[in-house]
Amino acid sequence: MSAPVLTIENLHVTMGPQEILHGIDLTVAEGAIVAVLGSNGVGKTTLMRAVSGVYRASRGGIAFRGQPIANLPAHRIVKLGLSQAPEGRQIFSNMSVRENLVLGGGDVGLGELDRMLDMFPVLRERLRQNAGSLSGGEQQMLCIARALMRRPALLLLDEPSLGLAPMVVAQIFNLVQRIRDEGVSILLVEQNARAALRVADHAAVMEDGRIVLAGPAAQLRDDPRIAEAYLGGHTH
Amino acid sequence: MIDPYYLQQLAIGLSLGMTYALMAIGFTLIFGVLNVVNFAHGEVYTLGAFAGLVLISATAPPVFAVIFAALAIGALAGFSLERVAFKPFRRFTDEASLKSRAMRESTLLSSLAVSIVVREALEIVFGSQMRSVPFEYLINTPVRVGPVILVTGDFIIFGVAAAMLAGLQYLLTRTRIGLSIRAVSNNPLGAKYVGIDTDRTIIMTFVVGSMMGAAAGILTGLYYGAIFPAMGFVPGIKAFVAMVMGGLSSIPGAVICALILGISESMATTFVSSGWSDMVAYGFLILTLIFFPNGLFGARRERV
């Protein structure tokens, strides 16, 4: 396995009086897709926000390509090459699709614009339209394209399938693989374990602010505990 | 044929409305981004006027230098205002807390406090009486346009207001800082994810908005020829009314409503004594709040 892009060690995150993450350890290898699975409210989004610098880490370390980034301001982390397509998409709904992409490029500029519009042709047709007028799937694509505008080394994807029709979900996960094939490592958070395990190399299962199970995705796909909890067994 | 008297009142009303508009633009810009009312905006206007006056008394510079001084003081005032009255209450920068009621109410009071302190400080330093602008700096040379008599200041204020609106439009749609301002206004959390320094963007919003307020102050000072510490109060209220009528976060809406306000006030003096003309603004405010709670141009338009 090549050098890790992202190393998370013993990460604790506290919100007010409550500790949400109780010591997370996770590594994303260069060129890998790592999936974090778990049901609602186990702290997956908190983990993603802490990595992006939106939430503060109360303890533990996060290193991106060897450089410590825990508690750097979010805008500096983005500039290092770590982008996120966040939960809820957080696109600029009152602004045009093009303006969203321009903002995504930031000081890197529009070098990626054409490549993004080739990868997401639907955005090319809607370039002048308000982002808020796009369908859910289109908004998710815009959100991912916006994050890729800076040519990041690592892309964080928080619930890209949420609220989308199965056909659109398949389309999004195909794109996820394509993005990895173009050299971007991916940390993926999903409730849709089946879809996530299909594309991931490694996976970790979170429960109540901890990672309870981790390993190669192929192995987890066959793990009876996963099958029962997330792949159509009875839910708890 | 319209009675020239009404044309004259219309012209006076338009230029009055333009001075309100200059004020309202900065007011609305700041509201659009932070969803807070900046009650110190009137004092920024006063500071701009005094900056110009001090420079005039000290060195008798050309007019553009006077405007430049007002803009510089406006920028400084905007920066300091944000740091003193707004930043301390912005402990979290997610959208919910950035636009929360607690944030709104505490900064409403802190900006009001700053406005009182600034006004009193100006009174201590300069005295509370009106100071007149030296004759050669006044922009009230009469210009005859058909049956109507205007003054140079009417054209200057109209020109500056139009230029500021166009400049702001350019800034907000074509420049990186303008796009960032709109992004923070639209979705502060999303802004963080694309690498925007939200703190810096908020400061820039205050700087731009306050420069416009300060420019309005010095222009109005040169137009009416009187500068005094409480001069920002009434225009501040009028700009606030224009902003509410315009739908709170629509800059074009605020400008149109400022013009409506100015024209209505000047027309009203035909029927009631001029002392009552302020009632027009308050009347409009009440009517707007009752019948158009989203403002005349609210809801449909983009913020900022």
Helices and strands in order:
The complex is a heterodimer of chains A (236) and B (304).
Chain A: E1 4-15, E2 18-29, E3 33-37, H1 44-52, E4 59-64, E5 67-68, H2 74-80, E6 82-85, H3 97-105, H4 113-119, H5 121-125, H6 136-148, E7 154-158, H7 166-181, E8 185-190, H8 193-199, E9 202-207, E10 210-216, H9 217-222, H10 224-230
Parallel strand pairs in A: 3-8, 3-9, 6-7, 7-8
Antiparallel strand pairs in A: 1-2, 1-4, 4-5, 9-10
Chain B: H1 4-34, H2 41-59, H3 63-86, H4 95-98, H5 101-126, E1 131-132, E2 142-145, E3 148-151, H6 152-174, H7 176-186, H8 188-193, H9 198-224, E4 226-227, H10 233-245, H11 251-268, H12 278-291
Antiparallel strand pairs in B: 1-4, 2-3
Helix pairs in contact in B: 1-6, 1-9, 1-10, 1-11, 2-3, 2-5, 2-9, 2-10, 3-5, 3-9, 6-7, 6-9, 7-9, 10-11, 10-12, 11-12
Shape of chain A: globular
Low-confidence stretches of chain B: none
Which homologous superfamily in CATH is the superfamily of chain A? P-loop containing nucleotide triphosphate hydrolases
Helix/strand/pairing class of chain A, anyone? alpha/beta
Helix content of chain B: over 70%
Order of helices and strands of chain A: EEEHEEHEHHHHEHEHEEHH
| CATH second-level architecture of chain A | 3-Layer(aba) Sandwich
Quaternary: heterodimer
Strand content of chain A: 25-35%
Task: Give the overall average pLDDT of chain B.
Answer: 88
Low-confidence stretches of chain A: none
Number of DSSP E strands of chain B: 4
Given the helix and strand composition of chain B, which structural class is it? mainly alpha
The CATH topology of chain A corresponds to Rossmann fold
For the largest beta-sheet of chain B, the strand count, sense and barrel status come to: 2 strands, antiparallel
Q: Distance between the terminal alpha carbons of chain B, to the nearest Å?
A: 40 Å
Largest interface: A-B, 26 and 20 residues
> If you compute it from the alpha carbons, what radius of gyration of chain A comes out, rounded to the nearest whole angstrom?
17 Å
Fraction in beta strands of chain B:
under 5%
Membrane topology (chain B): Multi-pass membrane protein
Keywords (chain B): Amino-acid transport, Cell inner membrane, Cell membrane, Membrane, Transmembrane, Transmembrane helix, Transport
Main location (chain B): membrane
Protein name (chain B): Branched-chain amino acid ABC transporter permease
